[in-house]
Predict the 3D structure of the following.
Amino acid sequence: MKKVEAIIKPFKLDDVKEVLAEVGIEGMTVSEVKGFGRTGGKAEVYRGSAYVVDFVPKVKVEVVVPDRLVHDVIDAIQRVARTGRIGDGKIFVTAVEHAVRIRTGETGEDAI
């Protein structure tokens, strides 16, 4: 199993949710996060004064998937979350050693 974490622009969340359902993903965790990458934030003007917003609002989508779906999930997220502009986000994949569904006690892929 793998955990796929995607940091995306907030307005792309509904598109990502829909495309993941099409791929067969039944559940996900979504968090509102803030961060910055290479650009170091963005400059804005408020009442005539320029200032830098260090942390840009993003959304983090987390899904745990069987190994066989990892590439489909990555491709789907990348396809719908891409705008072609700076700040489209990142996708991270990590190994998941074990999973347990608390209610039923199911383990492994049965738990996801």
